[in-house]
Amino acid sequence: MVNQQKTVLLGVTGCIAAYKACEIVRAFQKAGYRVKVVMTEHATHFIDPTTFRALTREPVGLGLFDDPSDPIHHISLAQEADVFLIAPCTANVMAKITYGLADDLLTTTALATTAPLVIAPAMNVHMYENAATQHNMAILKQRGVTFIEADDGYLACGDVGKGRLPEPETIARFVMDLLEGQVSGAAEQSPQQGAQQNSQQTASQSGVQDLVGKRVVVTAGPTVEPIDPVRYLTNRSSGKFGYAIAQAAADRGASVTLISGPVALQPPASVEVVHVESARDMLAAAERVFDKCDAAFFAAAVADLRPLNEADQKLKKGINDDLLSHIELTENPDILSTLGHKKTHQVVVGFAAETHDVLTYAQAKLQKKNADMIVANAVGAHKTFGSDTDEVWLVTADGVEHYEEMPKADLAQIILDKAFAIN
Ligand code: CTP
Predict the structure, then answer these.
(1) Residue 138 backbone class (left: φ over 0; alpha: ψ -120 to 50; beta: rest)
(2) Structural domains in the chain?
């Protein structure tokens, strides 16, 4: 049931997609909401304020000092809003809000409002992917700003990629669900639905920001255990599963720390990456962030053993033959088990790559390492390392769910849904 009294304050910034804001206004009005519009000066180059004035039958906010009847216009706008939606939002306005700059009515109102702030960015793909933009988005997410992720597609500038403003109806629906307390709808779909609806939108693709405020830690990739300055022991892990989980969690609004062994992957732009080599470094990095996290995903292929003695000079044939032919090994710390036994409020998820008896070993690891879930998969024979797809079994105390082979990006969404449903 929609509360007729709710006011959506719509911020429109200087972007070619500004014309879509008219449709956003109409979508809210059709559902019975009152809409007021505030525009930046740049936005008026794309669409005339008269259009919004006619559509909303309300004055349109432009300048800080343009309403003589209201000397503190930004405060009254800020107070009237039940939600402040900025759509489309440029990189520039996002940057200003990140740093608390308030040099026009829109940004001053953003600073002054206590209503939920929802941002739908729209811009060129390279501007969207720029480290500065991603950094600002990550900071705003940490502060509780909700993002409606830009769509992929053909952009006005001719480039193809991420940066399109989603459809007005989608944006309005999302904000209405937020106002009516139903925002996590898509993320609440069951894992079975997720698997069956593989071809449909994932939570991330639909822009759902259900993990805003959550802190996620992911370990990924192999560890590297030195023998001497040039030789080491390692394994074939590609890191793809861990990176997919980090990407999916960040897309859904979580603050993500990705602790990665050496891999040939580009880390997602909006996650904090800690590069490590050995299991002991990985454990130390994980220990630093574990207490404050809500969920930890231990996807790394940690070397179980390391050379007992790391030579500080290259071992030479003919001189160090004994050391080279008998490398004494010692056990590495088990990161998942160490932190699994220290967990308080955290959801702890481990992975198990097995060549046989997959479920038996996964169930044993669940208990032994005090994990809440083990993502088990089969390796060896016909399975290739570094694949973009996988078939998994999600093993929890409640039982086992099987997912047929599908892209790791889709499995990552299912794993996040399942993990965050555990607590
Ligand atoms: N793991 C870990 N630290 C280790 C070894 C494993 O954190 N030293 C974690 C992995 O990240 C994974 C889970 O434990 O989430 C299972 O790893 P796996 O290598 O399959 O199991 P192991 O316990 O090493 O047992 P085994 O190799 O005998 O199967």
Answers:
(1) alpha
(2) 7-199 (3.40.50.1950), 215-420 (3.40.50.10300)
Check pLDDT > 90 for residue 222: yes
Helices (H), 212-297: 240-251, 279-290
Instruction: Give the Å distance between the CA of 332 and the centre of ligand 1.
Output: 10
Mutate to test the pocket of ligand 1, among 236, 287, 304, 330 (most ligand atoms within 8 A of CB): 304
Q: Quick one: CA dihedral 182, 15, 10, 212, positive or negative? A: positive
Higher pLDDT, 209 or 147: 147
CB 348 near ligand 1, within 6 Å: no
- Is 293 one of the catalytic residues? no
16-55 burial string, b = 16+ CB within 10 Å, else e? ebbebbbebbbbbbebebbbbbbbbebbbebbebebbeeb
Residue 183 — pLDDT band, cuts 50, 70, 90?
very low
The C-alpha atoms of residue 131 and residue 270 are separated, in whole angstroms, by 8
Whether the CB of 270 sits within 6 Å of ligand 1? no
Verify whether ligand 1 is closer than 6 Å to residue 375 (CB atom): no
Structure tokens at 197: 């609806």
pLDDT tops 60 at residue 224: yes
Tokens for 274, please give them.
């800690």
Stated pTM of the model? 0.61
Which range is least confidently modeled, 78-92, 173-187, 261-275, 394-408?
Answer: 173-187
Q: Terminus-to-terminus CA distance in the chain, angstroms?
A: 29
Please work out whether the CB of residue 302 comes within 6 Å of at least one atom of ligand 1: yes
